[in-house]
């Protein structure tokens, strides 16, 4: 009887520790969300040699990024107190769809200092069509967005009613210049929806059968063909922005 009780206590402790660790990640993500709400105070957005974000008061650790993307990156580098994670997102295609040659992969760079994330660099191609104001406004709206803890999701609304912001909303053709042919395209009377899937290139020993997948849904107006909503899903977490 004592052995069973001890065994139960052992497993319970492991479960509580696991929940505690993931809980800490969620708390840090919520803290980052609050920083996005006051974007200029906590984040520096630059557009030299491509878009980049610098966090003035970093909150995420390297392990949080690895948890969020479901594995450590295949490419890492370390120099003194600094660490670089390079995540490659390999575009996925249906079996009957021809592969493209120039938009098959997206690379994101995460830079850490003393194990805390202080900078994210985006591909140079993004800066051709994605204005800094668009990224800033989207993340600021996420900061003010509604959190559904049960669904592990955030829903936000971009302030497109302001005329100067409406001009920076990308069109379907501009998005396709960056991302290429979608995995699936769906047209209705109210919108055109593009669906993309990307496999996250993580270290081989961390794979659990298949690559982690990032899913992206983009909806566009049938009138001016501008984006009206964007939704991304990774590791069971969903973020949606409505324009």
Largest sheet: 13 strands, mixed
Number of domains: 1
Query: Whole-Å distance between the termini?
Result: 60 Å
Using DSSP, what is the number of strands?
13
Number of helices: 7
- Give the strand content: 25-35%
Low-confidence stretches: 8-21
Shape: globular
Q: Structural class, from secondary structure content?
A: alpha+beta
Secondary-structure element order, N to C: HHEEHEEEEHHEEHHEEEEE
**Which whole number gives the mean pLDDT?**
87
What is the gyration radius calculated from CA atoms? Answer: 20 Å
Description:
With 243 residues, the protein is α+β, with helices and mostly antiparallel strands. It has one domain. 31% of the residues lie in helices and 34% in strands. The chain is built from seven helices and 13 strands. It has helices at 2-37, 39-42, 62-68, 126-129, 132-143, 163-166, 172-179; strands spanning 43-47, 51-55, 75-79, 82-91, 105-113, 116-121, 146-148, 153-157, 184-187, 192-200, 213-220, 227-234, 237-242. Helix 1 (2-37) crosses helix 5 (132-143).
Keywords:
single chain, 243 residues, alpha+beta, 13-stranded mixed β-sheet, 13 strands, 31% helix
Summary?
This protein has 243 residues and is of the alpha+beta class.
How is the topology of this model organized?
Blueprint: H1 2-37, H2 39-42, E1 43-47, E2 51-55, H3 62-68, E3 75-79, E4 82-91, E5 105-113, E6 116-121, H4 126-129, H5 132-143, E7 146-148, E8 153-157, H6 163-166, H7 172-179, E9 184-187, E10 192-200, E11 213-220, E12 227-234, E13 237-242
Parallel strand pairs: 8-13
Antiparallel strand pairs: 1-2, 2-6, 3-4, 4-5, 4-10, 5-6, 7-8, 9-10, 10-11, 11-12, 12-13
């Amino acid at each position: 009887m004592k052995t069973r009780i001890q065994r139960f206590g052992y497993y319970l402790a492991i479960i509580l520790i696991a929940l505690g660790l993931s809980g800490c990640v969620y708390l840090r993500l919520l803290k980052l969300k609050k920083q996005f709400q006051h974007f200029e105070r906590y984040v520096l957005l630059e557009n030299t040699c491509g878009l980049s974000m610098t966090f003035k008061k970093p909150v995420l650790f390297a392990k949080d990024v690895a948890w969020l993307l479901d594995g450590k990156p295949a490419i890492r580098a370390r120099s003194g107190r600094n660490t670089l994670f390079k995540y490659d997102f390999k575009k996925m295609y249906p079996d009957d769809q021809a592969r493209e040659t120039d938009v098959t992969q997206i690379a994101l760079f995460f830079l850490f200092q003393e194990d805390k994330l202080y900078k994210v660099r985006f591909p140079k191609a993004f800066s051709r069509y994605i204005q800094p104001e668009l990224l800033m406004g989207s993340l600021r709206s996420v900061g003010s967005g509604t959190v559904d803890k049960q669904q592990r999701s955030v829903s936000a609304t971009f302030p497109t009613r302001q005329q100067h912001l409406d001009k920076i909303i990308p069109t379907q053709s501009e998005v396709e210049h960056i991302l290429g042919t979608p995995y699936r395209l769906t047209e209705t009377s109210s919108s055109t929806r593009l669906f993309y899937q990307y496999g996250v290139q993580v270290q081989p020993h961390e794979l659990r059968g298949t690559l982690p997948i990032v899913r992206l849904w983009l909806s566009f107006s049938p009138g001016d063909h501008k984006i009206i909503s964007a939704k991304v899903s990774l590791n069971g977490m969903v973020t949606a922005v409505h324009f």
